[in-house]
Queue: 2 jobs
Job 1
Amino acid sequence: MKSPEDSRGSQQRLKLRKLFRRIPKGAASIILILLLCAVFSPWLAPHNPIEQNLGAALKPPFWQGGGTMDHLLGTDNLGRDILSRIIYGARISVIVGFVGVILAGAVGTLLGVIAGYFGGKIDAVIMRLTDIMLSLPFILVGIAIIGAIGPSLTNVVIVLGITQWVGYTRIIRFEAMSLSRSEFIEMAVISGCRWWRILLVHILPNVLNSAVVLATLDVGKMIIIEAAFSFLGLGVKPPTATWGAMLADGRLYMTVAWWIVTFPGLAIFATVLAGNLIGDWLRDELDPRHQLKA
Amino acid sequence: MGAYIVRRLLQSLIVILGVIVITFIISRVIGDPVALLLPPEASPEQRAYLTKDLGLDRPLYIQLVVYVAKVMKGDFGHSFRHQESAMKLVFERLPASLYLSFVAVLLAIGVAIPLGIISAIKRGTIIDRIGMTIALFGQSIPAFWAGIMLIFIFAVQLHWLPPSGYGGFKYVILPATTLAFFVSAATARLTRSNVLDALDMDYVRYARLKGVPEFVVITRHVIRNTFVTIFNIVALQLGLVIGGAVITEFIFSWPGIGRLSLESIYSRDYPVIQATVVVAALIFVVINLLVDIVYIATDPRVKRN
Amino acid sequence: MKKYLLAIVIVCFLIPGLVLGAPKGKLVIAQGTELTSLDPALHGTTSEFNYDHAVFDKLYLFDVDGNPVPRVAVSHKIINPTTWEFKLRKGIKFHNGDPVTAADVKFSVEHYLDPKTKAPLASFYKIVKEIKAVDEHTIQVTTDKPDPLLQKRFAFSIFILPSKYIKEKGYDTFLKRPIGCGPFKFVEWVRADRLVLEAYEDYWAGSPLIKTVVFRAIPEDTTRLAELQTGMADIILNIPPFLVNQVKGQPGIDVQSVPSGRVILLYINTLAPGSLQDKRVRQALNYAVDKKTIIDKVLMGSGFQMAINIPPYDFGYDPTLKPYPYDPEKAKKLLAEAGYKDLKLVLNSPSGRYVMDKQVAEAIAGMYEKAGIKVDFRMREWGDYVKDLFGKKLVDTGLIGSGLVMYDADGRLSLYFLRDSVFCYYVNAEIEKWILEARVSMDEKKRKELYSKISKKIFEEAPFVFLYQQQDHWGVSKKVKGFQARGDEQFFLYRVSVEK
């Protein structure tokens, strides 16, 4: 005889299985490949990504005349293997994308929750803070921070965290505000629940859905901003391979060596697209209205 | 409502002041404009003279106080590089940026809103998938890449349009498209989700029950009610685009404030950096304020304490 | 009868004009940076000089080999080692009809020297103690110390400004509507977009052949090239070396390649205590760089190896010195000898400031790694980099370029080896003494000898890692006739024409 707890458990397992079936397959596999490349780059990459070979510079991909199987996707102007640089570049993209998003997301969500729950003066201060952050040109902030502490991957992520948290705050704040007015929270307040408990236990978990959706959508944005930084000369320092730097540096060679920019461009495009698709899917999944329908 | 507006205006002043102070401090930390203005052969006397002339020899806090005092009187100082007042330079370039931004947003709206509406109506179908993927395209490529590709394809290969410059339709269309890529992506998706919400509303179901033709349902009820949210979205994007079209303006040599801001940052032209930031902040703050007012006036769910 | 004679005379004047043609066509020049003002005294970069050459004239200018050629001045006489006399050309007029006189030359020099003007190039002229207008067409210049370079200084800069116009209408009016005595008149300036000039047909050397000249500022390299390729711009500078063949292959475009006066080298900070104070380490750094491969592979052949930092253009160039050969074994040996087998080095480089700068620096870093040197490569944003460079805070080494100034070794040497210079990271009392001696010697032969001594010493001491002399590639539309590319990144337009 099945107990109520048992059937709840199996119901949840069923839900999870249904969930996995509905994940957009294409997008998920792209993200999986990305993670694999990032983690296993030393084993997957055929060459050292920063090793120069000036004698083999600007070789085309293997299917074009002049290409070799040694360099499947060709080489750049310093003879470095494009495929290897893309595989290692996944590392940077993963770090920039995920860590950057976690940093920005954490800060932004926290501030949003605080602003939404407390309202009044605290809300006003935080909102005006977001206005200030949005008005500062991120290039200025980027030059300042990277100029002060050096162009490293860590510092680029720091800059991203410092400039991108605003995207979360507004939306989370709105949700936190409506949550705070709900009967449930009022009950908690009346029954003597402390504010920090309310925030942590009741409000935060409920805005997490939106935060996660925003975060997955932001992963792509982070990668693109890193590319913009590389374009402006502020990016992760060479010779580290990042997709953004490959795009930025390779653009001059576009007309004689299309492969230098096309492949990293495709990598960026695929990753960002996948991130966005998953984010959209997550949003649809986590939207309570649609769950009702199902 | 009136009290709210006044309060927000005061707060906006504080925001602008905050932006000014932070920009001031950051710019002075990052470099030495005198080193960039003079050739390496310049004598120490020349450097000392210029440093004093630009007011950079005094301690930071004195420079800040003097600057803020002048700003209160509307004087944003003289550019270090150009022989012109900093604000005048910004105002010279502002029309170009506004022009570009408006065209970009118009383009974006023209494409994105119909796309979002159609995707919402045909939710779950292949049309929805395609529509959203097209919209995502815009967010998946870096702006500088899009711009350079557009120049390469439409100017160099097809010879249809000039690569860069300032002027009428044929000059503005490529940079506006580059900018529009990003804006339309966000707009399309937000439109879609808002229309989806609206379609769920009781009044829509009621209209359908009444037998109102679908077309009328869409145009009269759904669109009219999502208009406010869409207006918010567009306004916010506009604010961001005006200040932030830096890379696009750079690539297309568009004489707007984005490019001015980039060049002034590179050359450490402090007065101009400050002036561009202040103007961009003002625009953004004003648009924000308008959006918030419209939101409050129309959305009964949000009440202020 | 007289009437017919008059008619014939008039027709005779018209015919040459009809035959030669009035100035016609439009020339569009795309440069990377925009003008920030219209006063030549406020200019310090070659792209600004190109505008100055069109609207203004100097006493002399440099021909492609670096010899001063008379323009507003026709001749000079050295009265004594510190006094020069220049005779001016008669009949030159400013665009508003005012004649160009000695008073204008005096006014111009004093304008450049006035601290209130804040002319970036003022320090090149501080040697001038006094300037006198002896008569309408003669000026006398007295220098502080004997200056063998005075004529070259007047070929380098000091554009002649209209003193009467400025005094009457005011400096601010001049800034808005400048006039000069050059081949083109100012028409309009839309900041950051375009600067438009038109032919000044009464130019003293004859009317220019182009009707309209437009300067455009296009900061992005790929866009600038696209402008040339689509025919929207007629002249651009700095086509990237690997694109030269492709551009040459395009119909309607020509590429003119010239050795540049710009020299690229690696700075070494010898002032900070450490390994770099040892001559052997610095020499090792020179031996460890395969200059030929860098030129062939990174620069696609666009470069010339340098023995030291003085290119053939400069007076004082010593052709007997040969560049450091590529010898990584010798480099390793020298490092071991000096006790630095595991040398760690910081290599700074700007990005996009010079042609392929970052790529060259990256290649050098790779070569150093192969020689057992651990390199910490730092790509620097220019403003940030300059702050360190000029503040004597550069760490270890940095890529830097130096351009052509007065076709004379004195400029390059003073900048780097006189301890007062903000750019001096290496001090050698002997070299300093020689430089100062050569600077005030009016004897050309003696100067040459001194520079030869200095060159050999510099080679041996290796205060830099010597690299290469750039090769500049100008992209010129085939519509343009008579354009001559120069090594100093400048051009003159009065003999250039544009056909449809």
Job 2
Amino acid sequence: MSNPNSPDSGDTAWQEYLTGGEQTASAGGASTGGASAAGASAGGSGAADQPEETAGPRRVIGTPPPAAARTLLAPADDGGAQPLVRELPSDPDDPARAKKAELVVAACFILAMLAGFGFLVAYGIVGVGSITGAQHSNLLLGGTLSITLLLLGIGATIWVRQLMPTVELTEQRHVMASDPKDKAAFKETWDEGAETSQFVKRPIVRRSLIAATLPLGIAPIFLLRDLGPLPGKSLDTTVWRKGLRLLVYGTNRPITPAEFSSPGSIISVGPQGFLNDDDAMAKAAVIIIKFRPGEVDYAPGWRPVANKVVENWTVDNIVAYSKICTHVGCPAALYEQTTHHILCPCHQSTFDATQGARVIFGPATRPLPQLPIGVDKQGFLIATGDFAVPVGPSFWERS
Amino acid sequence: MLVLFGVGYGLVTSSGSATAAQQVAPNAAQIAEGRTLFEASCASCHGNFAEGTNVAPTLIGVGAAAVNFQVGTGRMPLTANAAEGIRKPPEFNPSQIKALAAYIQDLGGGPPVPSAAQVNPAAGTYGLGQQLFVADCAACHNFVGAGGALTYGKFALPLSASTPTQIYEAMLTGPEAMPVFNDLTITPPEKRDIIAYVTQVRAQPNPGGFSLGRVGPVTEGLVAFLGLLLFLVLAALWITAKHGKAHE
């Protein structure tokens, strides 16, 4: 065992803490020998059961002091010196104020409880079937939970500040490493267990046990499946198809190339019949832009993702692009008619509208998909098919 | 048949002349005054006959609406060739602006200045105006017309000081980088609805007390973030603060 009388011993510092550091220190730093026996006689809290090397009873945080005298530890019986007793003040100085604080703390805790019940009630009665419902549910669940935790914290803080004594305690750190003797004992127990359990001798038991725990280990990986279902092909296509008219968003009117005739024009359009379908419009929103002759860089033939406008997909220098940014899906519709830049306001991805919406700046990596357009018999602009490539942000399954 | 045709023709021409009468009602003296003003103040960049130079575009065909907007908002004459012309007090008085507009209109036609009835916000329905504004204008000008940044130093200006006539003219002519929304794509009544939205949204109260520039969730989030940060710091101070006489 380590010698408690040695000033160099780690146990001495620990003991000083337990017996009231300052007083002990003033009485002589190394004068606390024999604390174990003294602790048993004065504290009477089972200190005698402690192995000798711990040299003192443990004070378990969170439990009341062992004796009515609030003596944490009996002092050393060192040559007839007075017992060193450290008392924490048992009551706050001002009982009236303490009573008030007690009520405040209790009020905080009761309100926290009510807010907690509010959380349960809100979970029960506010459904998440609609967007509005989900918003309300989020607000109520988050709000009640925050209030509960905040009030618990406030109550605990007031408790500590107003009711508990304001004494500065310094907790000395004791030696972290285990005693060599403990280590040896542990090793002995471990080896003995391995031997007597026959874990080593009987491989079939050992291996079957390992096999039995394997599925449990893998189970969390399987639960990841619930992050799905995967979108499948739903992101590959939009509701655009051959013959659907382009309706001006807001006025819901079809539009002719003769009307959309001013160079430098842009307008937001959607597919006929889907303007009020938010799910469809989330992918199908389109902007059409009118250029002056010669401004657009055309690609000969059918090259949908080349950095040029596909020529036979345009009508009278009108080009249609997806309005959904290919970075993270913001509506990219800031159009500068002087530079022909289409700018996404979220992360400043910039596309050149004259070159098939090629990315010229920002985090987007793909051009805005071009929608093939034509005119129907009445002269209105129509789509002549869906986008050739998926719109919006890239995704893993993107073909 | 002929009578019918005559009646129809009469209707068409009368309505046509009515719209013409609403316009600037140009006369030779006004056009001549405009020409003098143009040669003194504009021709150095736009060319002696408004044909355009390598520093400024041609003005033939831009119409009175463009002149009224550009000069009326003080953008023209430009003080410097910057990325974006900004709003400033006009250099010319209203009658001079009318004269300049008449000269340019006479030179090459183009969209005329809208009538007072065309831009009367009280006659518009701002529900539809909001839909159109959010779909086609808010991307640059923000949901409430607070303006926003564009590329390479350009920016969309706030609409807080724009008059209804200027809003109409801007949509019609597409000044600077702004795209054009002609009267066939967004009809005059629809433009009036948009004007109604832009003007009435300015009057809306700010429920939080401060508008924070009305530029949306970024500022609000920043304010909330800083506010909460301050709250957390104060809470941490409160929790750990020394108090009472017990501590000496």
